[in-house]
Specification:
Blueprint lengths: L2 H13 L5 E5 L6 H14 L7 E6 L6 H10 L1 E3 L9 H17 L1 H11 L1 H13 L6 E5 L10 H15 L2 E6 L6 H14 L2 E4 L4 H8 L5 H13 L4 H17 L5 H19 L7 H6 L2 H9 L5 H13 L6 H12 L4 H16 L6 H11 L5 H14 L6 H13 L3 H12 L8 H7 L8 H13 L6 H11 L4 H8 L3 H10 L4 H12 L5 H18 L3 H8 L7
Parallel strand pairs: 1-5, 1-6, 2-4, 4-5
Antiparallel strand pairs: 2-3
Helix pairs in contact: 1-2, 3-6, 5-6, 7-8, 9-11, 10-11, 10-12, 11-12, 12-16, 16-17, 18-19, 19-20, 20-21, 21-23, 25-28, 26-28, 27-28, 28-29
């Protein structure tokens, strides 16, 4: 049902003078309550409300009709407080309005207090208060989440009474799919008798963002196309994504607009994955995805079907790989807050890459001489490649530096080629895995021998200074890891794993230990080595006390 139809019918309902019951159905999170409040606020601003009083009550956990009746009374406010809701002053006003009725009922209160104690008096007061509920709007939300002692039949009966005897306009909001089969059947039996208008709230992605983004900002302008592309209709999810994006925009305010665009691109996809995991690829898949590698695997027909489906989804969205900024943003989505240092580091790298992009750097200009003209001398092209590479050595990918070095060697410029190898390897923080990732996986040209040897030496001399405890915990949290993570864990002795396990406290301990044990079940010598050392570490811990022994035996570890 179009949201325009729903909006039009709600506005008619609010402005008419007829007592009615309006039912709005919709799935969890599509924004029934959000949209209802928005349309109610608009009608109040336009002076289109027939009644001057309104009560909103969520039935979540409400277990009796008496509780519900009193909740309607205490949550009734004047139109001036439609959006802010009930407070002490509004409740005081409500009691002032029924003071006379309570005073007249004092003999009944005294009798009830004598016969039933304080609870009887309280019930009489509650019923007296409910007498004041008339000629107003009453919104009953979350019908499917009512307590087990409050039936759908009771709620619909109360709605009918409010309409017929108190001239109220009653709004029922519910997710029919979450009702039990008995409650569904009861709803169908009673709804024709009680409900005057029944609407289904099922917005399209375009309609959902129009409702969620009532106020236009730069951030939600950028988010709109992303949310529509991903097909998100859950307004709660959209609003959570918006809040994260607003925070990210603050962190990236000093950077180029392309950096914020990238961050918002990652937030929308990561938000869908975290908040609606049944409708999106897993976070671990998003982190490790690389379109080039996926394309190569598809050609070999070794990509699992579920990965093919998520690959198609993710590429249709425009996601091709996860860099440092993307990873920091996705971490923030998972945690609910951003690591400012990680965001800044990723943004700095990408800002630098943009400022030295291939469209503008000297290497690109040199290759354009090679590809775009037959009128340029060979030496001029080779000089341009050599000097251009020197000027932006830190921004050249392994794929491109290999191509440049190989061409220099082909035309006898071995000294210059060797110099570029040394300069490239001498960068402050070279990524030692990128040669394998970019060249050996999908590069079409042979790898220059000197460059390959230099990378191998770099890898051999590399000392991983990361804390293995932190890496293991991150592997558990993210359910993803890389070869460098496994190399680091495989370098740990059984004693070091014992120290790691004893340093972890809190609810994460069990999941970390179980995960570490599970690594031994993977194929490969590093995994087997880790599994054996983890088992030895746990066996050592088990010997420290009978209770430790019992707990570790329960993990399936042989402790004798």
């Amino acid at each position: 049902m179009s949201t325009e139809i729903v909006k039009s019918e709600i506005k008619r309902f609010l402005s008419s003078n007829d007592a009615e019951v309006l039912c709005i159905k919709g799935k969890w999170g599509v924004g029934k309550t959000f949209a209802w409040r928005q349309y109610l606020s608009e009608a109040e601003s336009d002076k289109k409300l027939h009644f001057a009083k309104y009560a909103y009550v969520s039935l979540f956990g409400v277990n009796s009709l008496d509780t519900l009746r009193y909740s309607i009374f205490e949550n009734t406010v004047s139109n001036a407080k439609l959006m802010s809701g009930a407070d002490v002053s509004s409740l005081t006003e409500r009691w002032e309005s029924v003071r006379g009725s309570v005073r007249k009922g004092m003999p009944l209160l005294s009798a009830a207090a004598i016969k039933f104690g304080g609870s009887g008096a309280a019930e009489v007061i509650s019923r007296a208060a409910f007498l004041a509920v008339r000629d107003q709007y009453v919104c009953l939300d979350d019908l499917e989440r009512a307590g087990s002692s409050l039936s759908i039949r009771d709620v619909l009966g109360l709605a009918s009474m409010l309409k017929e005897q108190r001239r109220c306009k009653v709004i029922l909001l519910l997710n029919e799919e979450q009702l039990s089969e008995l409650d569904k059947a009861e709803l169908q039996r009673q709804i024709e008798k009680v409900v005057d208008v029944s609407l289904i709230f099922d917005p399209t992605p375009e309609e959902a963002v129009a409702i969620a983004f009532a106020r236009e900002t730069i951030v939600n302008q950028k988010l709109t196309s992303k949310i529509v592309k991903l097909g998100i209709t859950n307004i709660r999810v959209i609003k959570k994504i918006e809040r994260l994006a607003e925070r990210l925009a603050e962190l990236l305010a000093a950077y180029r607009v392309e950096i914020l665009d990238q961050g918002i691109h990652a937030i929308a996809l990561g938000g869908l994955s975290v908040l609606q995991p049944d409708n999106a690829p897993p976070i671990a898949f998003i982190r490790r995805y690389n379109s080039l590698l996926s394309a190569m695997r598809e050609k070999k027909d070794d990509l699992p079907e579920v990965d093919r489906q998520w690959s198609a989804f993710i590429e249709d969205y425009g996601w091709y790989h996860c860099d440092e900024l993307d990873a920091a943003v996705i971490d923030g989505v998972v945690m609910g807050y951003f690591d400012e240092t990680a965001i800044t580091n990723g943004a700095n790298i990408n800002q630098s890459n943009l400022e030295n992009s291939k469209e503008n750097n000297e290497v690109s200009k040199a290759w354009r001489l090679y590809h775009d003209s037959f009128n340029v001398d060979d030496d001029e092209i080779l000089d341009a490649l050599y000097f251009g590479s020197r000027s932006c050595i830190a921004n050249i990918s392994p794929l491109n530096i290999n191509g440049t070095i190989s061409l220099l060697r082909e035309f006898g410029r071995h000294v210059q080629a060797d110099e570029l190898v040394n300069l490239y390897i001498a960068q402050a923080e070279p990524n030692i895995d990128r040669l394998d990732e970019e060249l050996r996986m999908w590069g079409s040209e042979p790898v220059d021998r000197a460059l390959a040897l230099a990378f191998e030496k770099l890898k051999a001399d590399f000392v991983d200074t990361r804390n293995p405890r932190d890496i293991l915990v991150a592997m558990v949290t993210n359910r993803s890891w890389n070869d460098a993570d496994m190399v680091l864990l495989a370098s740990q002795s059984a004693e070091e794993f014992e120290n790691i396990f004893e340093s972890i406290e809190g609810p994460n301990l069990s999941s970390v230990v179980k995960f570490a044990l599970s690594l031994g079940a993977h194929d490969g010598p590093m995994y087997k080595q880790v599994g054996e050392r983890v088992t030895t570490a746990l066996q050592s811990i088990a010997q420290k006390s009978p209770m430790r022994k019992r707990r570790i035996a329960n993990l399936g570890v042989a402790v004798e």
